[in-house]
Every structure is written in structure tokens, then in C-alpha cells.
Amino acid sequence: MTNQYDVIIVGAGPAGMFAALELVKSTPALKIAIFEKGKVRMPEKPHSIVSGWGGAGAFSDGKLTLTPLVGGQLQDVISSDRFDNLMRYVDDLYIEFGGDPDRLFGGASAETDMLQRKALAANLDLIHYEIRHLGTDKSYRIVENIRACLEAHHTDIFMEAEVQTVTKEHGLFTVSVRRRQSTAEVFTAASVILAPGREGAEWFVREAKRLGLKMNNKGVDVGVRVEVRAETLKHITELLYELKAVYYSTTFDDKVRTFCMCPYGFVALENYRGLITANGHSYATRKSKNTNFALLVTESFTEPFDDPLKYGQSVSRLANLLGETVLVQRLGDLRAGRRSTPARIERGLVTPTLKKATPGDLSLVLPYRQMVDILEMLEAMETIAPGIASKHTLLYGVEIKFYSSHVEMREGFETAIDGLYAIGDGAGITRGLLQASMCGVLAAQHLLRN
Questions:
Q1: Which residue of 104, 189, 353, 418 has the fewest CB atoms within a 10 Å radius of its CB?
Q2: pLDDT, tens digit, for every residue of 61-116?
């Protein structure tokens, strides 16, 4: 095995995988290498939810949001017709690699129109669209099927291989890689696709600055994971599968949104560079008695402070300091100004699905402004889901969504450096499974044209 390649891909999440698939499908003779800092993970005991083969998508809830309305900004750089064609193309690939063609939710109906009217009366903007639900269990099998396909096409896949630097000299890229604690090795390629994922966002920012690429700040979302009895949202989840709503708070006029609804799902832990945050999953075959979703407040910064990553990390670190994991609190205890205890949680009508969460007081963790925003939106949601703001509702904190700074791009997500591409969530381009995958296909197609 030599260290010279036509294309090197950094990161094996959805963007990196689908870039590689498009390359091997269109030009099988290309010599391609993929470097992934994480491991090949086992479903029963993943080393990390956010790094490893398949990236964060491997153990996500597996929702393909079949719309340009959410999940990224690709609709700003390609035509609506091209977006729709590419979206269907990628959706078909997910089905080809193991997705269920029948698990499609959320089409327009008289019921959705009625729900929309109720939402508007409560100052909620309800966004509905088609969703294909893969499920956490099937998502893992899909990414493993993709890995097998790429290996069958002689793609070299390096796991536990952390890219240190990428440099271009004399028309060729030099990629320095540290593998399993060994000394750094050097690989070369004519083109490089950076798909670092959210786990690699900080590395991406450092590398982009070192390379002299111009960056734009993307902000951070801070909030909680909400858990209720499944009956509370059954009329919505059976209709739409996922409730996607946006609310602008009365007190601060901040944007608050629902995210990643998991019907009959499980609250989970997410490890982001040693910080433990909340997340949620639902499975195609395994079900709980609860439904969970995130409520997130969007925070952007300008001056004098302009580092949303550090801000989000600081909030997460405080929650871990108090509980050594995420905290869980009943909404009624939060309103009463008292911490939740194991006994109070046990008396509640909602049994927590995350047993590792520590009962505590989220008011000691979340900033006042974000707490007010979240409480306001829960009250607004009572209009469309009575009981969602019950004293028994569980709040897990914190949940953070980090969005990498956005490098200024040319066509096809090529940076100012010829042959260097930056794609996916970690590059600040997308915010979800489907558009990250689409982004990988677009970058590969542009690379092949060049």
C-alpha cells in the first residue's frame, strides 16, 4: 500500500461516505483514501456517538428530512429542481443500503392544516414535510453496508487515524496523519475533501485559519431535552412523526425551536470532546413509553466575544460539574425553584428513559435568558399538545448543538485553495443527515468535473 492517492477524504460521516460513494460509482479507477479519527463501533457498546465510522449519523435517530426547509443551506447554492433531484437520489441510496421504503411520514393533509392553524394561534410556526425514519438500529446497519461497498471498490479506509494538518505545495496536497498513537505519517493526494463532522469542528477552524481561509461565524444552539409520556404527542407523531416548530420568545424575542423528536424513544448521552450532553434516539423495532425532543435557543455572537463553540462548551461543562453527567429535573420542580431528587422523579408520571442522568437543578446551569425562552415555548406548545407543560414533564440538560464556522466557498464547496473541498456539518454547510450526504455528492461531482 503506497501513500499516494488521487483523493483523500478526511472524516467518515455522512458527507465523507457519500462523497466516496459518488467517486467510486462514477470513476472506479480513482485511488481513494478515507481517514477517520474514531473506531468501527459496535451497536451494543459504541465508543463514541459522534466519532467513528458513520460519524454522528451511525447512532442518530436516522431521520431523512425530505425538504429544503431544514437541515442546511444547500437550497441557497443550487436550484430547487436540482435540490429535489439530488434529495431523491440520496434518499434512494439510503434505501438501497438498507433503509425501509415504507417508513415515510408527514405528507400534507386536512389534519396538518388544522394543526398549523392551532400553532399559529399560539405564535408557533409549524414546519411540516416528509420524513423518512431509518431508526438508530437500521442507521448502524446502513453505514456498515456503505463501508462494505467502499471496501469492495478498493477504497483504503484508515480508522483511528487522526489528520493533523493538510498542506498544498507544488500542486499536491500533503496530509499528516497520526494513527493509533504512532508517529505521524505523510500521505499525498491531488484533491482533498474535508468532512470533519461536528466532532472535528474545532480542528477544522484551526486548520482553515492556518491555511488562510476566510471564515464566517455560525453560532450555537443551547437548550434541553424534553421527555413526556408518548400519549401527550401521539396525535402529532402519528401524523407528522416529528414536530418541527419555531417560536420567538415574548420576553427576549429569541428564536426557540424543537429539534430531533423521537417518538417512543430513549434519551441518550452524547460525548463531545469529553463533555457529556443530552441527545435522543428512537428505534425501528425497540420502543419506550415516552417521546423526547430537544428545545433549543439559537445564540449568535458578534463582538467583543465571537466564539460560540467556547460558549456552548462552558455551559456543558457547568452541567457536568454539578452532576458528572447530564442533569434531569421535573418541570414542576423547576417552576417551584427546587431541585429534583430521586424520590421526586420516582413520584412523577414520566419515568425517565436515561437512568444515568442525575436529578438536580437546571436553573444553576442554563443562563436565565435561555431558561425563560424554553419555559415560554413549553407554555405555547400547550395549545397544540395539552399536557406538554405538565409538572411531570422531564427536562434533561444540557443539550448543545455546535455548528462549525463556515469557510467561504466557490462552486461545488471548493475552498479558495484549488482542489480542497469542505463539506458537511463540521464545515458549517449542513445541519442534518440528508443534506450532509447531499453535500458529499455535490462536492464529488464537482471534483470529477475538474
A1: 418
A2: 788 999 998 888 899 899 999 999 999 999 999 999 999 999 888 777 888 899 99
Residue 267's beta-bridge partner residues? 280
Q: What percent of the chain has a predicted confidence (pLDDT) above 70?
A: 97
pLDDT digits (tens, 9 = 90+) for 332-351: 999 999 999 999 999 999 99
Cell 437550497 belongs to residue: 75
CA–CA gap between residue 177 and residue 166 (Å, rounded): 9
Task: Give the DSSP per-residue string, 388-450.
Answer: TT-TT-EEEEEEEEE-PPEEP--GGGB-SSTTEEE-SGGGTSB-SHHHHHHHHHHHHHHHHH-
Q: Which CATH class is domain 4-99+134-216+406-449?
A: alpha beta
* pTM score of the predicted model: 0.82
Mean pLDDT of 33-47: 80
Name residue, grid cell 417518538. Answer: 263
Sign of the dihedral through C-alpha 196, 200, 201, 202: negative
3-state secondary structure of 365: coil
Number of H helices, E strands in the chain: 11, 22
Give me the residue spans of the domains in the chain. 4-99+134-216+406-449, 220-402
